[in-house]
Structures are given as C-alpha cells and as structure tokens.
TrEMBL record:
Pfam short name (any one): S-methyl_trans
Organism: Anoxybacillus suryakundensis
Sites where the protein binds Zn(2+): C201, C266, C267
SUPFAM superfamilies for this protein: FAD-linked oxidoreductase (SSF51730), Homocysteine S-methyltransferase (SSF82282)
Annotated Hcy-binding domain residues: 1-281
Alphabetized UniProt keyword annotations: FAD, Flavoprotein, Metal-binding, Methyltransferase, Oxidoreductase, Transferase, Zinc
Protein name (record): Methionine synthase I (Cobalamin-dependent), methyltransferase domain
Higher taxonomy: Bacteria, Bacillati, Bacillota, Bacilli, Bacillales
Gene Ontology MF: a single term: methylenetetrahydrofolate reductase [NAD(P)H] activity
Cofactor: FAD; Zn(2+)
Biological process (GO), any one: tetrahydrofolate interconversion
Length: 615
C-alpha cells in the first residue's frame, strides 16, 4: 500500500505550515538551515502534526534550493540541508506518515527574475537529493507561474514513478496569474503526469472553496488543497494569520464536498488546524460526484476609437515632430507653460514629458500632462519608468492615464536611482522595459498584469527607447527587435551628434517595421559640449563640434547660434532617412527647440514645393 492506494479509498490528511512555526527564530532566518542547526525542533514540529492527525508530512525543504539558500550564503549546502530534512521527517514519522519531499516555486509575479534554464538547474539539484534519500513522494508547492510548474513537473515525472503532488497558487478566485482558469491548469497538470493536483498558499479557505466549485473531479488524479489559515495581517513587522480552528472544521467538510482527497494547511496553519480537519472528517469518506459551477464569461468593452492617428502612423505617413520639454524640478509651471505654448504655436505633433529623468524628482508628468492637454489642447507623450513604481503602482498609473485620456506613452526601464539626486533611494524594477511594454499591450487587450479583466480595453500607443550610443549597435538593435515582439509600436532615440552615426542608425534599423523618431538635442554651450562628450556614456562629439563650441565659450548668444547650426546640420542628415524627429529641449531653452521646429517645417515646405515643381 502506498499514498495513492490510500487516496483511492478515502480522504487523507496532510500537515500544515512549517515556516509559520519557525517564525519564532526571526523572519530573516533561513528556516531550512534549522534542519542542520536545530534538528530536534524540526522533528518536534513533524511529530506535533502527526499527533494532530496528519498522515502525510512534508520535509522542511520549501526553500532549500540553490537560489534561495544563496540569499543566506548557504548555496553550497543544498545537499546537506535536503538530506537532513528527509532524515528528520522519517525519524519523526516512524512509519506512521508518508514523507513528501517539498520543492517550492521560484518565480513570483515577475517571470524575468529567473530564467527557465536556471529554474531547471536549481530544481534538478534539489530533486536528486530528495529522491536519493528515498522520500515517499514529492510535493511541488506554491507555484505562481504555471510555466514554471509545467517545466519542473515534466522533469520530476521523467525521474521518478513516486507519487507527485503538484500545487498551483491562485491569483484570485478561479484563476492563476495571467488569467489562466484553475480548472484548465489542473487538467494540464494531470496530463503532464501529476498524481495529485491542487492548490496551496496565498489565500485561505474562502477563495479556495469558491475556486474549486469550478473544478471537476479529475478522472485519474486526486484533488488536494492546503489553504492558508486566513489572509495575513501585518503587525509589528510580522505577518500574523488569525483564524478559528472551528472555521477549519467547517471548511474541511466543504472541501470534501468538492471532491478533495488530500487536505492539509499552508501559511498560518498549526497542528490545531490539522486536528480540526481530522475532527471534521472522522470516517474520511470521499465524494465521487459534484456539480461543477460554470465560470461566468467576462465582457470586455472595446477601446474607444481615438480621433487622431497614432504617433507611429504619423511618422509612417508624413513628417512629424515631437518635442521633449521636461516638467520642472521646482514648483511653478509658468515658464514651462510658456514653452509648451510656444511649441504648440510652432505646430509640433506632441510634447514629450520625462518621468524624473536622470533619477531626479520633477513635477509629476501625469499632472503636467493633464494641464497641457486640458489647457493648451496639446498631445502629451508620457514617459513611464519602472524605477519609481512597483507592479501595483505601474498598473494604477496606467489606469489613471487611460482615465485621463492620455494614450501616448514611452515605456522605459529608467535611469537607476544612483545616477540622480537621491542615490540611496530604491530603484524598484519589478519590471523591465520589455515587461512594461508587454503589460501595456495586455492592458490594450483589457487585461491586467495578472490577467484580471479591466472592464475596458485601453488604447495606448506604445513608444520604446532606443539608445544607439553604445559600443555594439547590433546589440542595441536586437533589443529593439525584442521590444517590437513585446508590443512596441515605435521608437525614440537618445540624441545623436554625428551625421555618420545617423546614417549608421538608419542602415542598422531599416529592416524594422516600426518607425523611429530620431533624437536631436541642441548643444547650449562649450561646457555643455564638454559634459556630453566626457561624462555621458556613449556620447562622443567630433573635434570639429567641440572646437566650434569652444570658440564661442564666453558668448552666450553666439553659443546658442552655433548650437542651433550644429543641430540643423544633424536635422539635414536625418531629414531624408527618418520622417519622425524628436527634439529634446535643453534646460527649458524652448527658444532653441522652437527655432528648430520652424527650420524643419520650412525645409519640409521647400522639399514639397520642389517635388511639385519638378514633378
Ligand atoms: C527617448 C528616451 C527617453 C528617456 N526618458 C527617460 C525618463 O523619462 N526618465 C528616466 O529615468 N530615464 C529616461 N531615459 C533614459 C533611459 O531610461 C536609459 O537611457 C536606458 O538605459 C535606456 O532606455 P530603457 O530605459 O528603455 O532601457 P532598456 O532598453 O530597457 O535597457 C535597460 C538597461 O539594459 C542595459 N542595456 C541596454 N542596451 C544595452 C546594450 N546595447 N548592451 C548592453 N546593455 C544594454 C543597460 O544597462 C540599460 O540601462 C530615456 C531614454 C530615452 C532613449
Ligand atoms: C510559502 S508557502 C509554502 C510554505 C511551506 N509549506 C511551509 O510551511 O513552510
Ligand atoms: Zn504558504
């Protein structure tokens, strides 16, 4: 007889949380290290669960993998820690309970934090130790990312015929992250060879029960559930779970009615919760039939059609000019609005507004964008970096932009905090620019990052950054290709300072289907030229440009003239190669960008006249 034979006959009860009971050692401790340093305590916890009624216990190895142990400098101890864990669980079980080797998921909400290759390597290393210590089965638990669970389950299934329990973690009732319905996920896990499929962690009995109502009883595999004790409260720097054991007794019966065969607990549960489950189901009789609730389908409203063509379409069809005028670093918008108005009068297509560029605080571009749109009837292009907002803040920001009708956005990773005024501030980077582009694309399909319906589709036109001021242009172009795959509609470049570089950029990108707005920023002075040349990574000014600026070092009027003349020659170089021009206003010197806008319009007019004249 083995675990699967038991499950065929009846409901089986598993243990509850291990981590929660080890909290007393401090939340910053590596709980798995205690297998080696406090073995008697681990044995004691296992015994308490068995005495409470658990017939299945899990090794204390949830995070005993290379990646998580490395956070404590214990990456070389994977073997020792896992080996000890199995031995301690067996010592406590004394043949009274099955011992499951537990392996926890690595990816949380952000796929790009760890590649699948690293997931595989890390998983294999832990798996082989657990198997060689002769566990009775495997518990793959707390997988937020379904792709990760599919990957590791396939590996485990090839390596062993022991029972495998595969647990996903819900995002919300009935769905995993990115919107995959739970029923579909469990069906796929069964097809991949899991013997028991189910849920653990993150949510308590309420969400799990409502989710299981939509899941049919599998044909071959068994259903399992390890709920958290409740939703956690954050108190005095710790997460506290509070729930009555009485409630666990009631919900255990409800789980049985949903066809669950293996019931245990996750975070916040204790031997008392497990005893409550055992009390609730004295004869362990399972149900074989249930009514499955149909998942309600969700209607997503189509995006409202915007009246104006996107900036990508503009740059495809005609000369278009966008100008950056950054929100001020000090309070007061008078000069900024004068500049914006002057640029509007010069007939630009959009005003681009940086998001705390160079990691230095500026008036929020969402506030400035709203004023520019409402008071001046201009089109704002809002830069969004991943530096200042976490995944929650970014989504709230996007919903806000949609609500305000600002649909032109530039998705950036963003300069790291250490380059700016507050080098000690956190750089969030929950997402990279690639992830942010994908997120905005998903919003355009009416879904949040996790796949929850937003109720409406957004209509964002997505720009992305192109930094050609790098040693290997081909690598930068590869990033553009990836950004296009993620959903970028067009690009804006960093400023370029040589005609040759503009031509090189054209040659390297002419195969791309997306338009590029070529960046041009007038130099304001000899000092500005020196700074750009010596201190901004990747920017090199020619000797000729630096000599021209140096020659008028003490003459601001002449410096402006020279800076504009240089910018105009760059515009000349870009004119026939790129329809989109992105002018960057230096230090709120909008007089300079206004003049360049006039220059471009005039050049365009002359070109058209010539075309008409010569046919
Ligand atoms: C048009 C434009 C507007 C910008 N606006 C802002 C703003 O409002 N606020 C702000 O904080 N910053 C802004 N920046 C700066 C920008 O965040 C950095 O220049 C960034 O490095 C490039 O853009 P990204 O953020 O999309 O980076 P990504 O393309 O996502 O690159 C992120 C990081 O990857 C690395 N990387 C990129 N390319 C390569 C390569 N070829 N080889 C090796 N490593 C590479 C770099 O470390 C880079 O920082 C802007 C840049 C541009 C081009
Ligand atoms: C963080 S979810 C998994 C927790 C693990 N089963 C433990 O109790 O420690
Ligand atoms: Zn948990």
């Amino acid at each position: 007889m083995g675990l699967l034979d038991d499950l065929k006959q009846r409901i089986v009860i598993a243990d509850g949380a291990m981590g929660t009971l080890l909290y007393a050692h401090g939340i910053d401790r590596c709980f798995e290290e205690l297998n080696v340093t406090k073995p008697e305590e681990i044995v004691h916890i296992h015994e308490a669960y068995i005495e409470a009624g658990a017939e299945v216990i899990q090794t204390n190895t949830y995070g005993a993998n290379y990646v998580k142990l490395a956070r404590y400098g214990l990456q070389d101890d994977v073997k020792e820690i896992n080996k000890a864990a199995v031995q301690l669980a067996k010592q406590a079980a004394k043949g009274r309970a099955y011992v499951l080797g537990t392996i926890g998921g690595l990816r949380s909400t952000n796929k790009s934090t760890i590649s699948l290759e690293e997931v595989k390597r890390t998983f294999r290393e832990q798996l082989y130790v657990l198997l060689s210590e002769n566990v009775d089965g495997l518990l793959l638990e707390t997988y937020y990312d379904f792709e990760e669970l599919q990957t590791v389950l396939s590996i485990a299934r090839k390596e062993t015929t022991l029972p495998i329990i595969a647990h996903v973690t819900l995002h919300d009732i009935g769905v995993l992250q990115h919107g995959m319905p739970l029923a579909e996920a469990l069906r796929q896990l069964e097809l991949l060879g899991a013997d028991v499929v189910g849920l653990n962690c993150h949510l308590g009995p309420y969400h799990m029960l409502r989710s299981l109502e939509e899941v049919p009883i599998p044909t071959r595999a068994f259903l399992s559930v390890y709920p958290n004790a409740s939703l956690p409260q954050y108190r005095d720097g710790r997460f506290i779970y509070e729930t009555s054991e009485q409630y666990f007794e009631e919900t255990a019966r409800a789980f049985r009615d949903q066809g669950v065969r293996l019931i245990g607990g996750c975070c916040g549960t204790t031997p008392k919760h497990i005893a409550a489950i055992a009390r609730a189901l004295p004869d362990r009789t399972p149900v074989y039939k249930k009514e499955v609730k149909q998942r309600h389908t969700i209607v997503v409203q189509e995006a409202e059609q915007t009246k104006q063509p996107s900036l990508a379409d503009l740059a495809r069809t005609r000369r278009s000019i966008i100008v950056e005028l950054d929100p001020p670093k000090k309070l007061g918008l008078t000069k900024f609005l004068e500049g914006a108005k002057a640029l509007k009068d010069a007939h630009i297509d959009a005003l681009t507004l940086a998001d705390n560029s160079l990691a230095t605080p500026r008036i929020s571009n969402i506030a400035v964008g709203t004023i520019v749109k409402q008071q001046l009837n201009m089109r704002p292009l809002i830069h969004i970096t991943c530096r200042d907002r976490n995944l929650i803040g970014l989504q709230s920001h996007l919903m806000g932009l949609h609500t305000l009708g600002m649909t032109d956005v530039l998705a950036l990773t963003g300069d790291p905090s250490k380059v700016g005024d507050f080098p000690g501030a956190t750089s969030v980077y929950d997402l990279s620019s690639f992830d942010l582009i994908s997120l905005i694309r998903q919003f355009n399909e009416g879904l949040s990052y996790s796949g929850k319906p937003l109720g409406q589709k957004t209509n964002f036109s997505i720009a992305a950054a192109f930094n050609p001021n790098v040693r290997h242009l081909d690598k930068a172009v590869k990033r553009l290709e990836k950004k296009i795959e993620c959903g970028a509609h067009y690009f804006l470049t960093q400023p370029l300072y040589s005609e040759k570089q503009i031509k090189d950029v054209y040659e390297a990108t002419k195969h791309l289907p997306t338009p590029i707005y070529i960046g041009i920023m007038p130099i304001t002075s000899a000092r500005n030229a020196d700074f750009l040349h010596h201190e901004v990574p990747g920017i090199t000014l020619s000797d000729d440009i630096r000599a021209r600026m140096a020659a008028c070092a003490n003459d601001p009027v002449q410096s402006t003239r020279e800076g504009l003349a240089i910018a105009k020659s760059l515009i000349d170089a870009a004119f026939d190669l790129f329809r989109g021009i992105y002018l960057i206003t230096p230090f709120l010197r909008y007089d300079m960008t206004v003049e360049l806008v006039h220059y471009i319009h005039e050049k365009e007019r002359l070109t058209k006249e010539r075309t008409v004249y010569y046919g």
